[in-house]
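Q: How would the structure tokens look for this protein?
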Amino acid sequence: MKKPHNEDMLRYSPFHSRVKAMCQTNDWYMWAGYTTPNSYEDIELEYFAARNSTGVFDLTPMTKYLITGPDSEAFMNRLMTRDVRKIKPGRVGYTVWCDDAGMVHDDGTIFHFSEGVYRLCAQERCMDWLQCSAMGFDVNIVDETEDVAGLAVQGPTSCATLRKMGLEGLQDLKPFGITTFPFNGAELTVSRTGYTGDLGYELWIAPEQAETLWDALFEAGKDYMIRPMGSEALGLARIEAGFIMAWEDFVPAEQMVRHGRARSPFELGLGWLVDFNKGHFTGRKALLKEQEQGSRFRFVKLDVDGNKPAEHSFILNKAGDVVGHVTSAAWCPTAKSNIALASLEMPWGDESDELFAEIYYTRELHWTRLLAPCKVMTGPVYEPARRRMTPAPNY
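A: Here is the predicted structure in token form.
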């Protein structure tokens, strides 16, 4: 297997030999020090694989921390805004964690493998924060990012593909569930999770098994039009699903330079992840105060008129005043909607508000300014029934 680093200390995923061979665009970027593809062949084809067949995304660079010890549950509950005790063994839970001012450090997922054994998956590296927060707790925290290879297998035929690979019984795994299968003399962990808003799974395995897993997966999925997908296609899918992303939709509090640029869970539309009934947690006092006095911002999904994506646009009211800005935007093919995620100043963001996106776009070096009417959406943008069906459909 190729060494995980090259001479310039850029990290390579254990899947890199397969990824590189399939990356026709030669379009790369750095994710947490790893060399990963923006695209493989065509962004739209990769996106439609996750919507119409099976798309595969290498998520090995995702930061992964193994947290164990007698106080692991108490530590996690002290750190997170949600009640971690409700995430039972064999389950995964979405969560956020804050600083003392109630500003979000990051969002991620908690994998509860067994009693006292957790994995925290996040975009940002936060070992210093975890260790500082662990003072007084009998816990052990290990950065296992390089010790666990991961693939996201997403789309309507994802379950059928994995069953053909030999994972029979996978169809009975419930959303946010975890299970294991024997694979090539090793253990393959599978969670019914993903970042596309569709039926999908995430596969976790030892790095030395990565290439074998990739080959077996693509052999099993060849009749299901399986296709690798890069970050651009994944980004399109997650915007369509209404999912947020660090550095796109919020600034992690620990990385904030300018005062006031971070956001609280309430200001990101994640108030449902804040449980004041569980006792003390980091940021609780500040969040209680915010609940009492009101938030500064409201995070909304907008249906933007026309087909010009409102990336980096200001949001204006009917008087022409700037009342917010777009954080992520895309024309989403499956939803057939021009969607924007936006942070608006309070009290803006009610369904009745008349809002406009100030969009600038260029064609043949000619710039055009467009004021596109926007409607606030309260429901999910894209949420197919198959995402939550159990047993999962065998397309």
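The two ends are 34 Å apart (CA to CA).

The helical segments are 16-22, 43-52, 72-79, 127-133, 158-164, 210-220, 231-241, 284-293.

Upvote if useful.
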